[in-house]
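step 4 of 6: structure.
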Amino acid sequence: MSIDSGLAADACVALDRIWIRLAVHIRAEHKVVFPALAETHSDLRAPLQTLHEDHDYFMASLAGSVKSMHGPSPDFASARTAVEVLKLRLAAHNALEEGGVYPLVDKLPQEQLTPILGQVARELAFLPPRYGP
Ligand SMILES: [Fe+2]
C-alpha cells in the first residue's frame, strides 16, 4: 500500500464518519424536529426549506468526497475543496438552526417537548453497523 492509498483509505473512513454523524442529525431533524415546528410555526416554511436544501447538499457533497477518494487515483484536492465549501455552508446552516429554529423548540410546551427530545435521542443513537467505536 502506498502512502497515498493509505491516506486515501483513512480519509474515506473519516469522511464516512462525518457523513454518518451528519446523516443521523439530519434524520432526527427531518423526522422529528422540523415537522413539530412546521405544525406550530407556519412562518418557518422558508427557513426550514433552506435547512432541507442544506442537508441535501451536505449529504451529496460528502458522498461525492468519499467517492472521489476511492479507486487507484484518489482526488485529494477535490475532497479537500468540497470539505472547505461544506464547512462554510455548515457555519451558516448552524447559525440559522441555532439562532432561528432551535430556540423555538425550547419554547414548546413541556408535554410536546419531552417526547420530541426522546425521539431525537433515539434517532441520534441509531447508527449504521459500520459505525463502530
Ligand atoms: Fe441541520
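step 5 of 6: annotate
 - The two ends are 25 Å apart (CA to CA).
 - The chain has four helices and no strands.
step 6 of 6: archive
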